[in-house]
Structure formats: structure tokens, C-alpha cells
Amino acid sequence: MKQWKAAHLCAAFFIVLLSACASSSGDPGGGRERTGQWAARSGFDSATIHVSGLNLYSLLRRNGAGDTLSIYIEGDGAPWVNPFQPPRDPTPAKSLPLLLAQTDGAAVVAYLGRPCQYLDDRMRSGCPVSYWTERRFSPEVLDAMNAAVSQLKTLAGLGRIRLVGYSGGGVVAALLASRRSDVAELITIAAPLALSDWVAAQDLSPLVGSLDPLLENAARIPVAAVHFAGADDRVVPGDIVARYVAKHGGKLVLVDDYDHDCCWEKDWRERLRGALELLEKTR
Question: Could you tell me the CATH number of the domain that includes residue 218?
């Protein structure tokens, strides 16, 4: 019988690489209290969204009036202890999506965590481990994330949504975009959008029960999409993203000298501006 092998999207597949995902004192992540303190300093209000029996951590920042709500979706969170043992707590030690959201100059910006993240031990005990392992892209998880996006949209009072997903959060963003009619733009970063192909290429155990964006109905995917990939990314190579783009459209942007983690937050505002200008030309 084949052992379960970690299909996790932090750059650290093995225990010796865990330090790559560690958080410095000035970065968001590492728990609910610490992230909440960072969020308050950065102008975000935090709230827990209760949907479908799950508690999803969210942040919202308003810097004026706008017509589009930018929602950043968290990645898969904490790295596995080893290739065969998932983390006890999937909360990210460092959150790249939060750093990107902080940099985003849009008037209204939100952040949405993934199921079972940012919970205390008691609350997390009722959250199935499968929701941060093989079923993290399951229909029920997508239903909960979809409902949470709708609640954030209502709270913001805006009609248009821009979904920005990093790594596994990009998978969620692409799946949500195929289920909603209010997504104006889809942006993914280092996301394994051809999920089954990625699992096979990395020789990982199948994500049984998870949905694959590549297999979605192409007619339902918004054309206004940009998909970033790092030229040096060995976790999610650019060819995996290219397979999705070849079927579903959008623009693939391969960034030289970037890998799965580095260095997306350094020039994100300029890179995002370029992506939106590119999307505007395709309308």
C-alpha cells in the first residue's frame, strides 16, 4: 500500500526545509492573536465568518470608496512535519497573502483564511484534518469559501470582486471564479491550477475528494485572469500553470528569479498594477 505523501504547497516538503516558512517578528501569521495585532496596526478589522459548520478567519480594510472588493485567499498554511505527517495546526507561520493585501492600494481589501486555520485547540478539534490535507479543495470546502466571499462582499457593500489567490489559495480562487458571476478579475500566484497533473508530477498521493480547476467547464472561467508563476519555482513549475492557461485562457506571466515563496511581496503593488493594465487591454 502506498504511504500518504504530503501534497502541500509550502516550499518545505521536508522537515529540514521548515525554516523557509518561519515568520519574522514583523510579519503576519503565527496564530490568531499575533495576526490580529498585526492586522490592527495595518488598518484591518478582523472577524470570524461562520458558514457551513466552519469558522473562517477574515480581515477587511477600507481606505475610501471603490467599486471592487479585492479578496486575498490564504495558501495551504503550515508545512507538513515530514512527508507523511500533516501539521497539527494548519495556521500559516507566515502569511504571504496578508503581506500582499497590506501592499494592495485598492480602496477596499479583504483577506480570507482557509478552513481550520486561526483556531484554538478546542475549536480545531471539530475541524476534520482532511480539510487541510486531501479534501482541502472538496465541494463542501468550496461551498464554505464561496459563502464567506458572499458575506465579505455584503459587508463591503460592493458589487464586483477581484480574487487573488496564492498557492493553494489560487486553486480556491480559480474554482470560486467558475462558480460566481460577480468576479471581475482573477489573479493567481504560484498556484497548481492543473491539480492532478501537479500531484502526479510531484509523485504525491492523490487529493481524493478535491476538485481540479483544470477539469472545470472552460466556458465558466472568466477571461479576465492573470496567472503568475516563478521561473525558479520547483514546487509549482510554470508548465503546470501553463496547462491551465492553455485550456481556460487568461495570461501567464512567468517572473524571472522568483520561486514559490520569494519574492512576491517586494514589488507587489507595481506587479498588480501591471496585471490590471494587462487585463484592461483584454476586455
Answer: 3.40.50.1820
Cell of residue 78, nine digits: 503550515
Task: Give the C-alpha distances (Å, rounded to integers) separating 132 from 9, 80, 224.
Answer: 11, 10, 29
SS (H, E, C) 151-175: HHHHHHCCCEEEEEEECHHHHHHHH
Sign of the Cα pseudo-torsion (77, 97, 172, 12, in order): negative
Domain membership flag for residue 7: no
- Measure the CA dihedral 39/191/218/273, to 10°: 60
CA–CA gap between residue 153 and residue 148 (Å, rounded): 9
- Predicted confidence (pLDDT) per residue in 104-145, tens digit: 999 999 999 999 999 999 889 889 999 999 999 999 999 999
Tell me the whole-structure pTM to 2 decimals. Answer: 0.91
